[in-house]
Design a protein that fits this description.
By secondary structure, the protein is mainly α. It is built from five helices and no strands. It has helices at residues 4-14, 41-46, 48-60, 73-178, 182-236. Helix 4 (73-178) runs antiparallel to helix 5 (182-236). The chain is rod-shaped. 0% of the residues are buried.
């Protein structure tokens, strides 16, 4: 039993210490070193040294924590994402600027078209007004010409009627001067008066008809211009 205890102790010393089971086991330890023989003491003294030597390297050979993986790809990915974001922002800004330019160009083009259309419309209206005014003046001139020509005809007809009346009166007076009885005189006088009155009525009726016709002819150019003006107002509405 005395020789077995030191061997068991040496084996226990040779085994590495378990961190999870540091406490002593329930087995009884061997007798103290005083009961051992002198021959066994060097073995007992030398036994703990290897245990310490083996324990020290184990503590020294503890695995170091593995180095963190290289983080080089992360900055590259971050730079790529940043570049993509910047590029996307630049594209969006360019699209916005181009859209703004297109809208501005469209607005100015529409403004120019509207202005051009307004100027053309105003010019056309001015030309139409000039033409209308010119037509009115021409209508007034034409009406004046018709009126003047009609009055000239009236003057000629009046002169002709006066000359004819004078000749008839002269002939009647000659006849009345050559009668020998009062009955013949009154008869010639009544015939002359009746003839003169009939001639005057016929001439007056003829003159009235001619004047009405002259008024219609003189007003025709003006009526045409009124019709043109009414048509223009209807078209504009």
């Amino acid at each position: 039993m005395a020789s077995k205890g030191p061997k068991q102790q040496a084996r226990s010393a040779a085994k590495p210490a378990q961190p999870k089971k540091p406490a002593a086991t329930n087995k009884k330890t061997p007798a103290p070193a005083a009961a051992r023989t002198p021959a066994e003491q060097p073995e007992t003294v030398a036994a703990p040294a290897p245990a310490a030597a083996e324990t020290a390297p184990q503590e020294a050979k503890k695995p170091e924590p593995a180095p963190a993986p290289a983080s080089a790809p992360e900055p590259v990915a971050a730079k790529t994402e940043a570049s993509a974001a910047i590029k996307k922002e630049v594209i969006a800004m360019e699209a916005t600027a181009e859209n703004t330019i297109n809208r501005a160009q469209a607005m100015f083009a529409d403004f120019n078209d509207r202005t051009k259309a307004a100027v053309e419309k105003s010019t056309k209206m001015a030309e139409e007004m000039n033409d209308f005014a010119k037509g009115n003046i021409e209508a007034l001139v034409e009406s004046g010409k018709i009126t003047a020509k009609g009055l000239e005809g009236f003057g000629q007809e009046a002169a002709e009627f006066g000359r004819k009346s004078f000749e008839e009166a002269t002939a009647a007076f000659k006849n009345m001067a050559s009668v020998k009885t009062p009955a013949d005189f009154f008869k010639l006088q009544s015939d002359y008066v009746r003839g003169a009155f009939d001639s005057y009525v016929a001439e007056a009726s003829k003159t009235t008809e001619a004047m009405l016709k002259l008024a219609g002819d003189a007003a025709q150019p003006l009526s045409n211009r009124f019709a043109v003006a009414a048509e223009k107002v209807k078209t504009a509405a």
